[in-house]
Structure formats: C-alpha cells, structure tokens
Amino acid sequence: MDPRFIARLILRATRRYTVERPPDLRRQERWHPMKALVACDLPESALEALGALGLNVDYQPNIPTEDIASAVRDASLLIVGRGRVSREVFSAGQSLQMVVRRGVDVHNIDVDAASAEGVFVTHCPQAGAAAIAELFFAQLLALDRGLVERAADLRGGRPQDEVTISARGLYGRTLAVLGEDPVASRVAHCAGALDMQVRMWSPDSSDEAEPPAADGPRR
Q: Which of 80, 86, 165, 193 qualifies as a FRET site for 217, CA 20 to 30 Å off?
C-alpha cells in the first residue's frame, strides 16, 4: 500500500458511509494526541507514514476480533482488515473518529452502529484490485484449458498421450463485466490485453458502461 495514499485517506475520507452526523471536531482533546490502532498487517512504510502524521501508532496485526473493543477504547483511528468491527467496538471506542478498512468494501463493519456514534467509515477501493483480477484470469484460463482436470490425470498416473484437452482460448471471446468498481475496471483492462471483447454494465447506469479506454479493452 502506498503510504502517501493511506496518509491522504486518513486526512480526508475518500468514501463516507455514515450520514447521521459528522465527528465532533470541536472536541480537540480527542485529537491531541491521536492514537491509531492498526489491527491488520501494514508495511513498515505505511506505519512510518502514520507516525509522520503525528499519530501514536498501536500496531497489533494479530489481535483477535473479540479483543478489538477493549483495545480501541482510547483510539481515535482504527485500521482493520478482515476483523469484524461490531456495535460493541463503536460503543467502547469513546474517542473513535474514523474506521478505515484495508479492503475494497466495508462488509465486516457495522456501518449502522458507526453512523449512530458519528464515526466516519471508509475503505481502500484500489486495495487488492490487481491481485483479484490476476486470480480471476488464472481461474478463467485454468477452466478454459482444463488444467485442474489434467493435473488430476497426471497425478493419477494417466499417460499424457491419453489426455485430451478441449480449449477454445480467450482470444476474441466476449467477457461481460458487472459493475464499475476498481476490480471490475482492472478485469476489463486485462481482458483487453488478451484481445477479448468486453461488455461492461453497471446497475447505476441505464446504458452499457464504457470499458477502460486507451490501452484497455477494445470495443
């Protein structure tokens, strides 16, 4: 993760899910000094970026989910990965101002509870987009080429000359992509590099979405 990105993310939430009321920024005692509880793995460069912001960083990447509530009591910022952030966490975090999910969504965070407590919830839309797209195409190629079945045949001792692979290949085939989030865009971009025809559609748009232009998918 780019430390400059996480620094900007903390200073200004890129996507806010809470709408009830904003944090009470007038309560300056909450912000001097600010403690950041990091409950997920972060590279050293990102931790240094947090420290450069003047934050007191409490790095506990292996903290059990059930212990987050007690650890967050005096924290102003909580950064999580897959751990569940429940209503109990927001009730315990009397100084909590913002929760950042190191991931593409906030499915493991009780957003309603955050809204009730006036805590901003945000995430990292670009996190893992490239890795997810790569895994998608690894599985797609394995499906097309029958790699799983062939591997099983080889492990079972079946002679290679008896193994028949029926593959159509991906060149020229059409890939439908639902959504326009960073993962969908990355998948569409990679599909274009394989000379696939990409059709993107988003439920937020009545028309077919435009695939990534330039060196991305071709129409």
A: 165
Contact between 211 and 201 under an 8 Å Cβ cutoff? The reply is no
Laid out side by side, the sheet with 98-101 consists of: 56-59, 35-39, 77-80, 98-101, 120-123
Q: Could you tell me the maximum CA-CA distance found in the chain, to the nearest angstrom? A: 75
| Tokens representing residue 166 in the block | 């029926």
Strands (E), 26-84: 35-39, 56-59, 77-80
Report helix, strand or coil for 30: helix
Amino acid 29: pLDDT = 46
Residue 201 CA to residue 156 CA, distance in Å, equals: 43
- CA distances (Å), 105 to each of 69, 148, 171, in order? 21, 31, 32
pTM of the predicted protein model: 0.64
Condensed to tens digits (0 to 9), the pLDDT of residues 125-141 reads 887 889 999 999 999 99
* 86, 110 contact by CB (below 8 A): yes
Going along the chain from its start, the domains and CATH numbers come out as 3-123 (3.40.50.720), 129-209 (3.40.50.720)
- The tokens describing 138, both together, are 């690894």
Look at residue 197 in the predicted model and tell me its pLDDT: 95
Dump strand ranges (E) for 73-166.
77-80, 98-101, 120-123
Report the pLDDT value the prediction gives residue 140, as an integer from 0 to 100: 95
In contact, 165 and 150? CB cutoff 8 Å: yes
Q: Is residue 211 classed exposed, middle or buried when 0-12, 13-18 and 19+ CB atoms within 10 A define those classes?
A: buried
